[in-house]
Amino acid sequence: MSEFNDLSKENTDDIINTVAFKNFMENYTRTTSCPSIKLKAERKTTTVYNSKLGGTPYLPPDFEYPCNTDKDSDSEPLKLLAQLNFEELPKLNGFPSKGILQFYAACDDLYGANFDDWTEQTSFRVVYHKDIIKEESLLQTYSMDEAQNEEYFPFESEFLLTGELTSSPMSSGDFRFDKTFLDLYKQYIPTAAKNVYDLDEEIAEKVFNDLSQPGHRIGGYPFFTQSDPRDTDEYKNHTILLLQIDSEGSGKDEILWGDCGVANFFIKPEDLEKCIFSNVMYNWDCC
After folding, report:
1. Are residues 5 and 144 in the same domain?
2. What is the pTM assigned to this prediction?
3. For residues 204 and 162, which has the higher predicted lDDT (pLDDT)?
4. Highest taxon of the source (predicted)?
């Protein structure tokens, strides 16, 4: 690496355009890349079995519909936020290959999140149905008033979800990013920086833009408009991105979390392996 010893003294463009920086980015991508399912949301009518945002959920006959159990609520029914049918989606290592996973949330100004306890499932619920009943006539029927607290939900009606298997490096928003990035960066380009923000502003901006991971996805690395709430001892083991729902669209096709925010659900690897969804972490933030 001696030929790059003076890079820290060069200007930003010189560093960004060096073979050293290119090799670093290639190595960073190679060593941190993780598979995920990129989701596409389309305004289409869905069945009770489809992967989707909103709409009518799959309801087996013995299933008790989830209600808001927060002490300050009136036990109102939660609304289906998202449903994932793993038989319809690309196979993702570590995730179920069958069954339906549902995400319910309260129609309130926090969209069911509890910012004092990210895992308290009172105003939101994550439910897994392992074995799917294919005969629709045997299922429960349930209809929630679409207009019910519509202003307190991130979208109207329903969107069909389809998925594409992809792979991407650790995002710049992940709480592990700073250390992971700098440990490798220093092997290629000498720097005294103690965090990414200490790097030249243009380099930091390029890194954050190139390694941002917005959009809807299952697995992989998250995107935030603020910061990763898992950067604490209590939540640092919720390392798996179970689902990310971003803001997009306009008008009646708009999905909007507050002021153009994003929602994330995280789970511990050991819980996902056992299909235990009672300790899922739910967070959303906005600009």
Report:
1. no
2. 0.92
3. 162
4. Bacteria
